[in-house]
Protein backbone atom coordinates (compact mmCIF):
# COMPACT_ATOMS: atom_id res chain seq x y z
CA UNK A 1 0.00 0.00 0.00
CA UNK A 2 1.31 3.46 -0.97
CA UNK A 3 2.13 5.89 1.81
CA UNK A 4 2.72 9.62 1.75
CA UNK A 5 6.41 8.97 2.39
CA UNK A 6 6.69 6.57 -0.56
CA UNK A 7 4.82 9.02 -2.78
CA UNK A 8 7.20 11.85 -1.83
CA UNK A 9 10.17 9.58 -2.57
CA UNK A 10 8.73 8.70 -5.98
CA UNK A 11 8.17 12.40 -6.76
CA UNK A 12 11.77 13.24 -5.82
CA UNK A 13 13.12 10.44 -8.04
CA UNK A 14 11.08 11.59 -11.04
CA UNK A 15 12.12 15.24 -10.63
CA UNK A 16 15.77 14.18 -10.35
CA UNK A 17 15.71 11.98 -13.46
CA UNK A 18 13.42 13.98 -15.75
CA UNK A 19 16.29 16.18 -17.01
CA UNK A 20 17.83 13.09 -18.63
CA UNK A 21 14.94 12.90 -21.12
CA UNK A 22 15.55 14.69 -24.44
CA UNK A 23 12.07 14.33 -25.93
CA UNK A 24 8.87 16.21 -25.01
CA UNK A 25 10.89 18.45 -22.71
CA UNK A 26 8.25 21.18 -22.52
CA UNK A 27 5.57 18.66 -21.54
CA UNK A 28 7.82 17.08 -18.92
CA UNK A 29 8.66 20.53 -17.59
CA UNK A 30 4.94 21.08 -16.93
CA UNK A 31 4.81 17.79 -15.05
CA UNK A 32 7.91 18.71 -13.04
CA UNK A 33 6.37 22.02 -11.98
CA UNK A 34 3.15 20.24 -11.04
CA UNK A 35 5.06 17.59 -9.06
CA UNK A 36 6.98 20.29 -7.19
CA UNK A 37 3.74 22.01 -6.18
CA UNK A 38 2.17 18.67 -5.24
CA UNK A 39 5.16 17.75 -3.07
CA UNK A 40 4.90 21.08 -1.29
CA UNK A 41 1.19 20.50 -0.73
CA UNK A 42 1.77 17.01 0.66
CA UNK A 43 4.46 18.27 3.03
CA UNK A 44 2.06 20.91 4.34
CA UNK A 45 -0.83 18.45 4.57
CA UNK A 46 -2.60 18.40 7.93
CA UNK A 47 -5.37 15.87 7.23
CA UNK A 48 -4.15 12.46 5.92
CA UNK A 49 -5.09 11.41 2.38
CA UNK A 50 -7.90 8.95 1.79
CA UNK A 51 -5.77 5.79 1.84
CA UNK A 52 -8.39 3.71 0.05
CA UNK A 53 -8.39 5.84 -3.06
CA UNK A 54 -6.26 8.97 -3.38
CA UNK A 55 -2.89 7.50 -2.39
CA UNK A 56 -3.22 4.43 -4.62
CA UNK A 57 -4.45 6.51 -7.56
CA UNK A 58 -1.59 8.99 -7.17
CA UNK A 59 0.90 6.14 -6.90
CA UNK A 60 -0.36 4.73 -10.22
CA UNK A 61 0.02 8.13 -11.90
CA UNK A 62 3.59 8.46 -10.61
CA UNK A 63 4.34 4.93 -11.80
CA UNK A 64 3.12 5.81 -15.31
CA UNK A 65 5.25 8.97 -15.36
CA UNK A 66 8.26 6.99 -14.11
CA UNK A 67 7.85 4.44 -16.91
CA UNK A 68 7.83 7.21 -19.52
CA UNK A 69 10.91 8.84 -18.01
CA UNK A 70 12.74 5.50 -17.75
CA UNK A 71 11.90 4.42 -21.29
CA UNK A 72 12.81 7.74 -22.90
CA UNK A 73 15.99 8.12 -20.82
CA UNK A 74 17.35 4.74 -21.92
CA UNK A 75 16.33 5.15 -25.56
CA UNK A 76 15.08 8.40 -27.09
CA UNK A 77 13.40 6.46 -29.90
CA UNK A 78 11.64 4.10 -27.51
CA UNK A 79 8.00 5.12 -27.40
CA UNK A 80 6.49 1.68 -26.85
CA UNK A 81 4.63 1.81 -30.16
CA UNK A 82 3.39 5.38 -29.67
CA UNK A 83 3.97 8.41 -31.85
CA UNK A 84 5.36 11.62 -30.39
CA UNK A 85 1.88 13.11 -30.59
CA UNK A 86 0.48 10.17 -28.61
CA UNK A 87 3.20 10.60 -26.00
CA UNK A 88 2.49 14.31 -25.70
CA UNK A 89 -1.21 13.56 -25.26
CA UNK A 90 -0.45 11.03 -22.49
CA UNK A 91 1.80 13.51 -20.68
CA UNK A 92 -0.88 16.21 -20.83
CA UNK A 93 -3.44 13.84 -19.31
CA UNK A 94 -1.00 12.86 -16.56
CA UNK A 95 -0.29 16.53 -15.91
CA UNK A 96 -3.98 17.27 -15.44
CA UNK A 97 -4.40 14.24 -13.15
CA UNK A 98 -1.61 15.64 -10.99
CA UNK A 99 -3.40 19.00 -10.93
CA UNK A 100 -6.57 17.25 -9.76
CA UNK A 101 -4.70 15.62 -6.89
CA UNK A 102 -3.10 18.95 -6.00
CA UNK A 103 -6.57 20.49 -5.90
CA UNK A 104 -7.97 17.65 -3.78
CA UNK A 105 -5.52 18.17 -0.91
CA UNK A 106 -6.90 21.63 -0.18
CA UNK A 107 -10.25 22.42 1.43
CA UNK A 108 -10.48 25.90 -0.13
CA UNK A 109 -12.91 25.75 -3.07
CA UNK A 110 -11.54 28.87 -4.76
CA UNK A 111 -7.99 27.55 -4.58
CA UNK A 112 -9.16 24.26 -6.13
CA UNK A 113 -10.77 26.11 -9.02
CA UNK A 114 -7.64 28.23 -9.47
CA UNK A 115 -5.36 25.16 -9.54
CA UNK A 116 -7.44 23.43 -12.22
CA UNK A 117 -7.83 26.65 -14.18
CA UNK A 118 -4.07 27.25 -14.12
CA UNK A 119 -3.45 23.69 -15.32
CA UNK A 120 -5.76 24.19 -18.30
CA UNK A 121 -4.16 27.52 -19.11
CA UNK A 122 -0.64 26.07 -18.90
CA UNK A 123 -1.61 23.31 -21.32
CA UNK A 124 -3.20 25.78 -23.73
CA UNK A 125 -0.06 27.92 -23.71
CA UNK A 126 2.08 24.85 -24.31
CA UNK A 127 -0.07 23.70 -27.22
CA UNK A 128 -0.10 27.18 -28.73
CA UNK A 129 3.66 27.45 -28.37
CA UNK A 130 4.13 24.04 -29.97
CA UNK A 131 1.83 25.02 -32.84
CA UNK A 132 3.63 28.33 -33.34
CA UNK A 133 7.01 26.59 -33.42
CA UNK A 134 5.75 24.05 -35.96
CA UNK A 135 4.38 26.83 -38.17
CA UNK A 136 7.63 28.78 -37.82
CA UNK A 137 9.65 25.78 -38.98
CA UNK A 138 7.31 25.17 -41.91
CA UNK A 139 7.38 28.82 -42.97
CA UNK A 140 11.16 28.86 -42.65
CA UNK A 141 11.42 25.79 -44.86
CA UNK A 142 9.07 27.36 -47.41
CA UNK A 143 11.05 30.61 -47.28
CA UNK A 144 14.35 28.82 -47.87
CA UNK A 145 12.88 26.82 -50.74
CA UNK A 146 11.34 29.95 -52.26
CA UNK A 147 14.58 31.88 -51.87
CA UNK A 148 16.47 29.10 -53.63
CA UNK A 149 13.96 29.08 -56.50
CA UNK A 150 14.11 32.88 -56.78
CA UNK A 151 17.89 32.82 -57.05
CA UNK A 152 17.77 30.10 -59.70
CA UNK A 153 15.09 31.95 -61.70
CA UNK A 154 17.07 35.19 -61.50
CA UNK A 155 20.18 33.48 -62.87
CA UNK A 156 18.21 31.82 -65.68
CA UNK A 157 16.63 35.13 -66.73
CA UNK A 158 19.98 36.90 -66.52
CA UNK A 159 21.54 34.37 -68.90
CA UNK A 160 18.54 34.53 -71.24
CA UNK A 161 18.60 38.33 -71.59
CA UNK A 162 22.23 39.01 -70.68
CA UNK A 163 23.11 41.82 -73.11
CA UNK A 164 19.69 43.49 -72.92
CA UNK A 165 19.52 43.48 -69.12
CA UNK A 166 23.12 44.65 -68.68
CA UNK A 167 22.47 47.59 -70.99
CA UNK A 168 19.26 48.37 -69.10
CA UNK A 169 21.02 48.26 -65.72
CA UNK A 170 23.82 50.53 -66.97
CA UNK A 171 21.21 53.06 -68.11
CA UNK A 172 19.37 52.83 -64.76
CA UNK A 173 22.59 53.69 -62.96
CA UNK A 174 23.24 56.68 -65.22
CA UNK A 175 19.67 58.00 -65.11
CA UNK A 176 19.33 57.77 -61.33
CA UNK A 177 22.81 58.52 -60.03
CA UNK A 178 22.13 62.20 -59.31
CA UNK A 179 19.36 64.73 -58.66
CA UNK A 180 18.88 68.34 -59.67
CA UNK A 181 18.53 70.63 -56.61
CA UNK A 182 14.79 71.32 -56.64
CA UNK A 183 13.81 74.98 -56.30
CA UNK A 184 17.39 76.26 -56.28
CA UNK A 185 17.76 78.02 -59.62
CA UNK A 186 20.96 79.60 -60.83
CA UNK A 187 19.78 83.18 -60.29
CA UNK A 188 18.83 82.45 -56.66
CA UNK A 189 22.22 80.90 -55.91
CA UNK A 190 24.05 83.74 -57.67
CA UNK A 191 22.06 86.33 -55.72
CA UNK A 192 22.85 84.67 -52.38
CA UNK A 193 26.54 84.40 -53.23
CA UNK A 194 26.62 88.01 -54.41
CA UNK A 195 25.05 89.27 -51.18
CA UNK A 196 27.60 87.34 -49.13
CA UNK A 197 30.79 87.81 -51.15
CA UNK A 198 30.08 90.79 -53.48
CA UNK A 199 31.08 88.93 -56.64
CA UNK A 200 31.29 90.71 -59.98
CA UNK A 201 28.60 90.62 -62.64
CA UNK A 202 30.74 88.35 -64.84
CA UNK A 203 31.33 85.92 -61.97
CA UNK A 204 27.62 85.98 -61.23
CA UNK A 205 26.72 85.06 -64.83
CA UNK A 206 29.36 82.30 -64.84
CA UNK A 207 27.96 80.90 -61.60
CA UNK A 208 24.40 80.90 -62.96
CA UNK A 209 25.55 79.08 -66.09
CA UNK A 210 27.51 76.42 -64.21
CA UNK A 211 24.73 75.90 -61.69
CA UNK A 212 22.39 74.72 -64.46
CA UNK A 213 24.52 71.59 -64.89
CA UNK A 214 25.04 71.07 -61.17
CA UNK A 215 23.64 67.81 -59.81
CA UNK A 216 23.68 66.23 -56.37
CA UNK A 217 24.73 62.56 -56.22
CA UNK A 218 22.08 60.19 -54.87
CA UNK A 219 24.34 58.34 -52.46
CA UNK A 220 22.02 58.12 -49.47
CA UNK A 221 18.37 58.41 -48.55
CA UNK A 222 17.06 60.31 -45.55
CA UNK A 223 13.34 59.58 -45.52
CA UNK A 224 11.64 58.09 -42.48
CA UNK A 225 8.53 56.00 -42.99
CA UNK A 226 5.54 55.66 -40.66
CA UNK A 227 3.15 52.77 -41.37
CA UNK A 228 -0.49 53.74 -41.91
CA UNK A 229 -2.44 52.17 -39.04
CA UNK A 230 -5.91 52.98 -40.37
CA UNK A 231 -8.20 49.99 -40.71
CA UNK A 232 -10.11 48.99 -43.84
CA UNK A 233 -13.32 50.05 -42.06
CA UNK A 234 -11.96 53.56 -41.44
CA UNK A 235 -10.76 53.90 -45.02
CA UNK A 236 -14.11 52.74 -46.40
CA UNK A 237 -16.02 55.11 -44.13
CA UNK A 238 -13.81 58.03 -45.17
CA UNK A 239 -14.33 57.17 -48.83
CA UNK A 240 -18.09 56.90 -48.30
CA UNK A 241 -18.13 60.25 -46.52
CA UNK A 242 -16.35 61.91 -49.43
CA UNK A 243 -18.73 60.35 -51.96
CA UNK A 244 -21.73 61.59 -49.97
CA UNK A 245 -20.27 65.10 -49.93
CA UNK A 246 -19.79 65.03 -53.70
CA UNK A 247 -23.32 63.72 -54.26
CA UNK A 248 -24.84 66.33 -51.98
CA UNK A 249 -22.91 69.09 -53.72
CA UNK A 250 -24.13 67.99 -57.15
CA UNK A 251 -27.76 67.65 -56.04
CA UNK A 252 -27.84 70.74 -53.85
CA UNK A 253 -29.79 73.80 -54.90
CA UNK A 254 -27.15 75.99 -53.28
CA UNK A 255 -24.36 77.51 -55.29
CA UNK A 256 -21.09 75.64 -55.71
CA UNK A 257 -19.34 78.13 -53.43
CA UNK A 258 -21.92 77.69 -50.67
CA UNK A 259 -21.82 73.88 -50.97
CA UNK A 260 -18.04 73.89 -50.80
CA UNK A 261 -18.17 76.09 -47.71
CA UNK A 262 -20.62 73.72 -46.01
CA UNK A 263 -18.40 70.74 -46.80
CA UNK A 264 -15.35 72.41 -45.26
CA UNK A 265 -17.33 73.40 -42.18
CA UNK A 266 -18.49 69.81 -41.72
CA UNK A 267 -15.00 68.42 -42.24
CA UNK A 268 -13.59 70.84 -39.66
CA UNK A 269 -16.12 69.64 -37.09
CA UNK A 270 -15.55 65.93 -37.85
CA UNK A 271 -13.19 64.12 -35.46
CA UNK A 272 -10.06 62.51 -36.82
CA UNK A 273 -9.95 58.77 -37.34
CA UNK A 274 -8.62 57.00 -34.26
CA UNK A 275 -5.72 55.54 -36.23
CA UNK A 276 -4.63 59.04 -37.28
CA UNK A 277 -4.66 60.21 -33.68
CA UNK A 278 -2.67 57.16 -32.63
CA UNK A 279 -0.19 57.73 -35.45
CA UNK A 280 0.46 61.32 -34.39
CA UNK A 281 0.93 60.26 -30.77
CA UNK A 282 3.08 57.20 -31.47
CA UNK A 283 6.63 57.33 -30.11
CA UNK A 284 9.68 57.36 -32.33
CA UNK A 285 10.30 53.69 -31.58
CA UNK A 286 7.20 52.82 -33.65
CA UNK A 287 8.77 54.22 -36.82
CA UNK A 288 9.51 51.26 -39.10
CA UNK A 289 12.81 51.20 -40.95
CA UNK A 290 12.78 51.55 -44.72
CA UNK A 291 14.74 48.31 -45.06
CA UNK A 292 12.27 46.30 -42.98
CA UNK A 293 9.21 47.64 -44.80
CA UNK A 294 10.58 46.91 -48.28
CA UNK A 295 11.90 43.53 -47.16
CA UNK A 296 8.62 42.39 -45.58
CA UNK A 297 6.00 43.97 -47.89
CA UNK A 298 5.45 42.98 -51.51
CA UNK A 299 3.50 46.16 -52.32
CA UNK A 300 3.84 49.54 -50.65
CA UNK A 301 2.49 53.04 -51.34
CA UNK A 302 4.61 55.94 -50.08
CA UNK A 303 2.65 59.10 -49.30
CA UNK A 304 4.15 62.45 -48.37
CA UNK A 305 4.23 66.17 -48.99
CA UNK A 306 5.81 67.54 -52.19
CA UNK A 307 9.57 67.66 -51.81
CA UNK A 308 9.64 65.20 -48.90
CA UNK A 309 11.92 62.81 -50.80
CA UNK A 310 9.56 60.16 -52.21
CA UNK A 311 10.87 60.25 -55.78
CA UNK A 312 14.48 60.73 -54.68
CA UNK A 313 14.22 57.65 -52.49
CA UNK A 314 12.71 55.56 -55.30
CA UNK A 315 15.44 56.70 -57.69
CA UNK A 316 18.14 55.92 -55.14
CA UNK A 317 16.68 52.43 -54.64
CA UNK A 318 16.65 51.81 -58.41
CA UNK A 319 20.30 52.92 -58.61
CA UNK A 320 21.24 50.74 -55.62
CA UNK A 321 19.55 47.59 -56.98
CA UNK A 322 20.82 48.10 -60.54
CA UNK A 323 24.38 48.57 -59.30
CA UNK A 324 24.24 45.46 -57.11
CA UNK A 325 22.80 43.34 -59.93
CA UNK A 326 25.30 44.61 -62.47
CA UNK A 327 28.24 43.80 -60.20
CA UNK A 328 26.87 40.28 -59.67
CA UNK A 329 26.67 41.02 -55.98
CA UNK A 330 24.92 38.92 -53.33
CA UNK A 331 21.51 37.47 -54.11
CA UNK A 332 19.91 39.74 -51.52
CA UNK A 333 20.53 43.04 -49.77
CA UNK A 334 19.18 44.67 -46.63
CA UNK A 335 16.06 45.36 -48.74
CA UNK A 336 15.39 41.67 -49.38
CA UNK A 337 15.88 39.44 -52.45
CA UNK A 338 17.27 41.19 -55.51
CA UNK A 339 14.83 42.01 -58.29
CA UNK A 340 15.06 44.01 -61.48
CA UNK A 341 14.03 47.61 -60.68
CA UNK A 342 11.49 49.28 -62.99
CA UNK A 343 10.62 52.94 -62.41
CA UNK A 344 7.83 54.64 -64.37
CA UNK A 345 6.69 58.26 -64.24
CA UNK A 346 2.89 58.31 -64.10
CA UNK A 347 2.88 61.64 -65.93
CA UNK A 348 4.63 60.13 -68.94
CA UNK A 349 2.28 57.13 -68.92
CA UNK A 350 -0.69 59.51 -68.84
CA UNK A 351 0.65 61.29 -71.93
CA UNK A 352 0.92 57.96 -73.77
CA UNK A 353 -2.65 57.10 -72.78
CA UNK A 354 -3.85 60.21 -74.56
CA UNK A 355 -2.30 58.91 -77.78
CA UNK A 356 -3.04 55.21 -77.19
CA UNK A 357 -6.12 54.88 -74.93
CA UNK A 358 -6.11 51.07 -75.12
CA UNK A 359 -2.52 50.56 -73.92
CA UNK A 360 -2.08 48.90 -70.52
CA UNK A 361 0.62 49.62 -67.97
CA UNK A 362 2.07 46.15 -68.55
CA UNK A 363 2.31 46.76 -72.30
CA UNK A 364 3.92 50.14 -71.61
CA UNK A 365 6.76 48.58 -69.59
CA UNK A 366 9.94 48.51 -71.66
CA UNK A 367 8.71 51.28 -73.91
CA UNK A 368 8.66 53.77 -71.04
CA UNK A 369 11.17 56.58 -70.64
CA UNK A 370 12.50 58.62 -67.75
CA UNK A 371 12.13 62.37 -68.18
CA UNK A 372 12.00 61.78 -71.93
CA UNK A 373 15.23 59.73 -71.96
CA UNK A 374 15.39 56.16 -73.23
CA UNK A 375 15.87 53.41 -70.64
CA UNK A 376 18.38 51.59 -72.89
CA UNK A 377 21.32 53.48 -74.33
CA UNK A 378 22.07 51.00 -77.11
CA UNK A 379 20.85 51.41 -80.68
CA UNK A 380 21.15 47.64 -81.25
CA UNK A 381 18.51 46.90 -78.59
CA UNK A 382 14.95 47.73 -79.61
CA UNK A 383 12.14 48.72 -77.27
CA UNK A 384 10.46 45.42 -78.12
CA UNK A 385 13.52 43.52 -76.87
CA UNK A 386 13.65 45.37 -73.56
CA UNK A 387 9.87 45.05 -73.20
CA UNK A 388 10.05 41.30 -73.70
CA UNK A 389 12.86 40.99 -71.14
CA UNK A 390 11.30 43.16 -68.43
CA UNK A 391 7.84 41.65 -68.89
CA UNK A 392 9.34 38.17 -68.55
CA UNK A 393 11.01 39.25 -65.29
CA UNK A 394 7.63 40.47 -64.04
CA UNK A 395 5.87 37.23 -65.00
CA UNK A 396 8.50 35.25 -63.10
CA UNK A 397 8.15 37.49 -60.03
CA UNK A 398 11.67 38.87 -60.44
CA UNK A 399 10.90 42.59 -60.87
Write up this protein.
By secondary structure, the chain is mainly alpha-helical. The protein folds into three domains: 4-135, no CATH class; 161-180 and 289-399, no CATH class; 232-282, no CATH class. Helix content is 64%, strand content 3%. The strands form three sheets. Strands 1-2 form a two-stranded antiparallel sheet. The protein is elongated, with a radius of gyration of 35 Å.
Topology:
Elements: H1 4-17, H2 25-43, H3 54-74, H4 84-104, H5 109-160, H6 162-175, E1 178-179, H7 186-197, H8 201-211, E2 216-217, H9 232-251, H10 256-269, H11 274-281, H12 290-296, H13 310-326, E3 332-333, E4 336-337, H14 346-355, H15 361-364, E5 369-370, E6 373-374, H16 383-395
Antiparallel strand pairs: 1-2, 3-4, 5-6
User: Whole-number average pLDDT?
Assistant: 81
How many domain modules? 3
Given as residue ranges, the uncertain stretches (5+ residues, pLDDT < 50) are none
Shape: elongated
Rg for CA atoms:
35 Å
Report strand %.
under 5%
Helix and strand run: HHHHHHEHHEHHHHHEEHHEEH
Count of DSSP strands: 6
- The total count of helices amounts to 16
| Secondary structure category | mainly alpha
Give the spatial strand order of the biggest sheet: 1-2
Biggest sheet overview: 2 strands, antiparallel
> What's the end-to-end separation, in Å?
75 Å
Concise synopsis of the structure shown:
The protein is mainly α and 399 residues long. The chain has 3 domains: 4-135, no CATH class; 161-180 and 289-399, no CATH class; 232-282, no CATH class.
